[in-house]
Design a protein that fits this description.
heterodimer; A: 9 helices; elongated; B: 385 residues; mainly alpha; 3 domains; 13 helices
């Protein structure tokens, strides 16, 4: 059966159907991510001064991934334009570039960005024990500067088994630079760029720890929102890549031979979604 | 066809469509957050993860966590209600247009009220969350919008009443539900006003009063109207008249609703404490309390009917849809003797045929294009006989 209005415009809307559909879908996507972003904003506003984490993300890698995704948006527009000009070969190569960008993005996310978080450790010190870890925290210095105190010690966890083994009484943490020199005014503010943990080991008694986890979603509200939003976004990219692979496979060339404009329109609506990502 | 001649059912579906489009995705994000709470141990909603902004949790922060999480769930919740209301109202309006006198002047008010209501429903959601510790400015805003939204609601309710006024009302089963819907929704709406005010709600929160308000709004406001609409469509879908006896039995659910919730309006001060730890058995209500049993009456009716061999569905409403056609009174093309376009099968068929012409869409069907439609337009304009 012929699906109506895939290429020609509907008389009342003036557009082919999928185009209207994709803009409606975009509206609902805005509301979906709007809900998540507003949750982030409210949680951020509610956070007490000093406890919201900073400098835990790897900004250069994230920037690179953003660039890759924007590049994929450009190549898919070129793919669409090639279809409009009826140059299927160019379309095929641009599509391949788009799919590659999507795959690289997901690869970086899943094999580099997220694991780097999962490999990082943070221990929240009980209020009663904050004094004991003053050499790492430097709270007296922060107090004199009028800044909020630090309550967490982060770094690379050397004895991973301590997370599960109740017989191990302390965590051995390769400290993040901020805790090796806490009174240095340069450390008053978190680093914008990611700085890897140092070799300096701190031993933290489990009895002094309120809560300790790797940087997973349950670590803090910050990471909860981070992983939720980037995870949902990653699923969108994955969906886009799958759809593009479908168009890129022989299915696409078959449709191109039958109705090239239809394929162009399909690519157009799919790219609108990916451009949003 | 003009915009205002469009059946209100279509208008309400239009408003509902926008609500579905824009109100459900935040619900979706709430589901995602809920999923993360369950699976990944985050604390968007649950303080049980005890992770709030990373530090040790004390009561205040726990509350903040709930507040933040509720932001999205609350906002979606009220819009979802509006979705269901709209659809239900649409159905009952369809009914009121079909059975008694049709006053076309009402339609304009109805449509505008529905549009305003749809818009306002996006900005009242925090009225479920007075206790979450929001600031006075935010609270004042949402109290104001909640007050304002009662205006289109009352317009719609009044329009329904007006459309009954002066008509010779036949109390068919759909009409029973539709007329029960009107006062009960009124009760629900009026009991909602104290809840809309922060100062009163802080005391009424978590009492039976809230439960009563909620059930008067949701049960008659949506379920009764949907029942009315469903039953109205039974002859359309089954080409057989509905079973009056069965439907009237099911209508006794109204008595159950009053039995359960009217006293709750009076016991406003009684806190809804934890339900007793009783294993549920037939005869207990959902809270584990011994029920008086009135709610069983509609079910008994269904059971009675089942024993007559008419089917096995326990629900009296849906029962109607599955009854054997042979045992039912056949209906003609206009089972409710309606004077309007939307219930007439001949018109629908003619319109559908027109639709199938290239370039023609349902709403471009004009009175000149189709003699059947034209005839009905003329009849409609002249008003009921």
């Amino acid at each position: 059966m012929e699906i109506p209005y895939t290429v020609t415009a509907r008389p009342d809307t003036g557009l082919w159907n999928a185009k209207v559909g994709i803009w409606l879908f975009l509206a609902s996507e805005v509301m979906l991510f709007g809900g998540l972003f507003s949750a982030y904003i409210f949680l951020r506003l509610d956070a007490e001064p000093g406890v919201w984490p900073h400098g835990l993300l790897n900004v250069p890698v994230g920037t690179m991934n953003t660039a890759i995704l924007i590049a994929s948006s450009v190549t898919v527009v070129l793919a669409w334009a090639s279809l409009k000009m009826r140059r299927f070969n160019a379309y095929w190569w641009y599509m391949l570039a788009t799919i590659s960008c999507g795959v690289i993005f997901l690869f970086v996310k899943l094999y580099f960005e997220w694991p780097q978080k999962f490999d990082h450790f943070g221990a929240y010190i009980k209020p009663s024990a904050l004094e004991k870890y003053e050499p790492y925290l430097g709270n007296k210095h922060l107090l004199s500067e009028g800044l909020a105190p630090r309550v967490e010690i982060t770094g690379h966890l050397h004895n991973h088994e301590a997370l599960h083994d109740p017989n191990i009484k302390e965590y051995e943490i390769g400290l993040d630079p901020i805790y090796t020199d806490p009174t240095n005014p340069k450390m008053d503010r978190p680093h914008f760029l990611y700085v890897p943990p140092t070799d300096k080991i701190a031993k933290i008694d489990k009895a002094d720890v309120e809560r300790a986890t790797m940087f997973v979603p349950s670590h803090s509200t910050y990471f909860a929102t981070y992983f939720t939003i980037t995870g949902l976004h990653g699923l969108h990219v994955l969906g886009g890549v799958i759809v593009f692979i479908y168009f890129w496979l022989p299915v696409g060339s078959k449709l191109y031979r039958q109705n090239p404009e239809h394929l162009a329109n399909r690519v157009e609506v799919a790219r609108v979604v990916l451009a949003l990502c | 066809m003009t915009w205002m001649r469009l059946p209100f059912f279509v208008w309400a579906q239009f408003v509902t469509a926008f609500l579905l489009l824009l109100a459900f995705p935040p619900l979706e994000s709430a589901i995602v957050m809920q999923l993360m709470d369950r699976v990944a141990g985050t604390s968007f909603f649950l303080p049980s993860g005890l992770v709030v902004n990373g530090a040790q949790v004390h009561d205040q922060r726990r509350r903040q966590s709930l507040c933040s999480g509720n932001t999205s769930s609350g906002s979606s919740g009220i819009r979802k209600f509006t979705c269901s209301f709209c659809r239900a109202w649409a159905l009952s309006r369809k009914l009121s247009r079909t059975t008694p006198a049709n006053r076309s002047g009402v339609t304009k008010s109805l449509v505008l009220a529905a549009l305003v209501l749809g818009f306002l429903s996006f900005i009242v959601w925090a009225h479920h969350m007075w206790l979450t510790g929001m600031g006075t400015i935010v609270s004042a805003f949402f109290q104001t919008t909640t007050m304002i939204i009662s205006i289109p609601s009352v317009i719609i309710l009044s329009a329904f009443f007006i459309s009954l006024w002066g008509g010779s009302i036949r109390f068919t089963v759909p009409m029973l539900f539709a007329t029960a819907f009107l006062p009960m929704f009124g009760i629900g709406g009026l009991t909602g006003i104290p809840l809309a005010f922060n100062s009163a709600d802080l005391y009424l929160h978590d009492t039976y009063y809230v439960i009563a308000h909620f059930h008067y709004i949701v049960a008659p406001g949506t379920i009764f109207a949907v029942f009315a609409g469903d039953l109205l469509l039974v002859p359309e879908s089954n080409r057989a008249q509905d079973e009056r006896f069965l439907g009237q039995g099911a209508f006794l659910a109204v008595a159950h609703l009053h039995e359960r919730h009217l006293p709750a309006n009076v016991f406003a001060g009684h806190a809804r404490d934890a339900p007793p730890l009783v294993r549920w058995r037939p005869g207990l209500d959902a809270g584990g309390r011994e029920s008086v049993g009135l709610e069983r009456i509609p079910l008994e009716f269904a059971d009675f009917h089942r024993r007559l061999g008419h089917g096995t569905r326990p629900n009296p409403f849906h029962h109607q849809l599955f009854l054997e056609h042979s045992k039912r009174k056949k209906v003609d093309d206009n089972p409710w003797e309606a004077t309007t376009l939307e219930m007439d099968r001949a018109v629908a068929a003619a319109a559908w045929e027109l639709c199938r012409r290239p370039g023609c869409l349902p709403w471009t069907v004009t009175s000149t294009a189709c003699p059947v439609v034209k005839g009905f337009h003329d009849a409609d304009r002249a008003g009921p006989a």
